[in-house]
Design goal:
Layout: H1 2-20, H2 30-37, H3 41-70
Helix pairs in contact: 1-3
């Protein structure tokens, strides 16, 4: 039962981490922001899609690491 509770906590953290990436449309540095502003809307949409993918990959790595650390020996 304790493992199920831990998995629920990890799932909640993962959902919150994924939800926090939904508003990260702007690029991190001014140079990237200027280069994406000059692109067509289709390319900007592709960048936004890539941000979701990179955010999801980071969350997946974090959750996998947390599961490995919390697993019973």
């Amino acid at each position: 039962m304790n493992c199920i509770r831990a998995l629920r906590g990890i799932a909640l953290i993962a959902i919150l981490a994924i939800a926090s990436t939904t508003r990260s449309y702007a690029q991190g540095c001014a140079q990237c922001l200027d280069s994406t502003r000059a692109t067509p809307p289709a390319v900007q949409a592709a960048y936004r899609h890539a941000i979701y993918l990179l955010g999801g990959a980071g969350v997946a790595v974090f959750v996998a690491g947390a599961l490995l650390l919390w697993s019973d020996p």
